[in-house]
Amino acid sequence: MISLKRQARLRREYLYRRALEIAAAGAETSRQRGPPGLARPGGASSTPSARRDTSDADEKVQITEEALRHPIRMLATTRLMLDDEYATAGVADPKIVITTSRNPSSRLCQFAKEVRFLFPNAQRLNRGNLILKDLIELGRAQQLTDLVLLHETRGEPDALIVCHLPLGPTAYFALSNVVMRHDVAEMLRHEHQNSPDAALPPLSEAYPHVIFEGSFQSRLGMRVKNMLRFLFPVPKPDSKRIVAFIDKGYDGILSFRHYIVERRRTAAADDSSDDEEAGTATASSSAGRIQGHQQHQALIELGPRFDLGLFRIRLGTLEQQDADDEWRLAPYTRSARKRRRLFG
């Protein structure tokens, strides 16, 4: 188990490197934007005060760049937002534990079971009387990479917290429009009217392909994208399982969907008489048909489905109440006219 002094030292070093990365990003932004009053192409000539501001800004940028290490500056200027917490992402498979709040309802327990099948190699832990500090210490001792905590209000799941171990960060999401897997099955039966296509395929534990639909070009979008995609291991190219995070484009809402690509059969046109008259049957006409049916690729939703609303990113772990906030939603400071895409 990591000692308290070593843990505090590692956290200080981590926060220092994050501060250097943010400073490098600010220096690069100020260099690209330039000081106020600087002459632009096709504009008026710069004033002496603007020239003095330019020289001062260049000196500050030069001092900042000399103080920063080259790899960290490169990391910030390329906007990869990959700190050393995710250095082994893609090399080693993530180890995730799914747990709930205390005294969970039956619906939250069922939802936790379904979330556990979303992440390969994940395990579900009964919370019991464990406090947050014990959960984090247990995760560090078992060398877990992430801890996912589910909350509810009156039996309805309403929050999902992703805590990256051992030093953070921690992302807080609000859950809405939660549809369980058995509810998805009932929706399919209602849509297809008890046809064979209404049968929900079994859950697959294959490594899924992770798709992010949207730009995700802002610093916040890239940060959230990295935190979510590193929950999943690297899939095989022929994997038929798909996990999608869809940016709805307003208020930072991400829609989660879970699919699988499956071969389905549909009724084919009866052209066997024509083939008999022609006296030949081509391989192309018989390859896709089996006993009067034609095969095609279908995208089947497996469930569950829900919407994620990001409202906080904390630099520390879950039990550190004094950790700084990297980003926090301020819902009452923007009017409808000032609405913008949070993730780029």
From TrEMBL:
<feature type="compositionally biased region" description="Low complexity">
    <location>
        <begin position="33"/>
        <end position="44"/>
    </location>
</feature>
<feature type="region of interest" description="Disordered">
    <location>
        <begin position="26"/>
        <end position="60"/>
    </location>
</feature>
<dbReference type="GO" id="GO:0042274">
    <property type="term" value="P:ribosomal small subunit biogenesis"/>
</dbReference>
<dbReference type="GO" id="GO:0006364">
    <property type="term" value="P:rRNA processing"/>
</dbReference>
<dbReference type="GO" id="GO:0030515">
    <property type="term" value="F:snoRNA binding"/>
</dbReference>
<dbReference type="InterPro" id="IPR007109">
    <property type="entry name" value="Brix"/>
</dbReference>
<dbReference type="InterPro" id="IPR044281">
    <property type="entry name" value="IMP4/RPF1"/>
</dbReference>
<feature type="region of interest" description="Disordered">
    <location>
        <begin position="267"/>
        <end position="292"/>
    </location>
</feature>
<protein>
    <submittedName>
        <fullName>Probable U3 snoRNP component Imp4p</fullName>
    </submittedName>
</protein>
<feature type="compositionally biased region" description="Basic and acidic residues">
    <location>
        <begin position="50"/>
        <end position="60"/>
    </location>
</feature>
<feature type="compositionally biased region" description="Low complexity">
    <location>
        <begin position="279"/>
        <end position="288"/>
    </location>
</feature>
<dbReference type="GO" id="GO:0034457">
    <property type="term" value="C:Mpp10 complex"/>
</dbReference>
<feature type="domain" description="Brix">
    <location>
        <begin position="94"/>
        <end position="319"/>
    </location>
</feature>
<dbReference type="GO" id="GO:0032040">
    <property type="term" value="C:small-subunit processome"/>
</dbReference>
<dbReference type="Pfam" id="PF04427">
    <property type="entry name" value="Brix"/>
</dbReference>
<dbReference type="GO" id="GO:0005654">
    <property type="term" value="C:nucleoplasm"/>
</dbReference>
<dbReference type="GO" id="GO:0042134">
    <property type="term" value="F:rRNA primary transcript binding"/>
</dbReference>
